[in-house]
Design brief:
Blueprint (H helix, E strand, L loop, with lengths): L1 E9 L5 H17 L3 E17 L2 E13 L4 H10 L3 E8 L2
Antiparallel strand pairs: 1-3, 1-4, 2-3
């Protein structure tokens, strides 16, 4: 098991329920791959440096997780297909 940081920029027009549902869906995908979510840090709405999908703001969320390296490709594939996620970055911590 390795430790990863996952930063996601979610669509700014999501209400609190839709935002929480999206974060829970991502946490569920990590758990399904026998991973573990250590912490979730909601950074809130922030202005972005450039437009993404005609938006200048996004809702940022940081997830610290441990999972197998073989599970990262499937997680990133699912994140690319999840509509509310405008951008994501998965980084190996150690």
């Amino acid at each position: 098991m390795r430790t990863y940081e996952l930063v996601c920029i979610l669509h700014p027009d999501l209400d609190e329920t839709a935002f929480n549902d999206t974060v829970e869906k991502i946490k569920g995908w990590i758990s399904e791959s026998e991973g573990n979510v250590e912490s979730v840090d909601n950074w809130g709405r922030r202005k972005m440096a450039y437009m993404i999908r005609k938006q200048l703001e996004g809702q940022y969320v940081l997830l610290n997780a441990t999972m197998q390296p073989s599970a990262t490709a499937e997680l990133e594939r699912k994140l690319r297909l999840l509509e509310p996620v405008m951008r994501h970055m998965l980084v190996l911590v150690n």
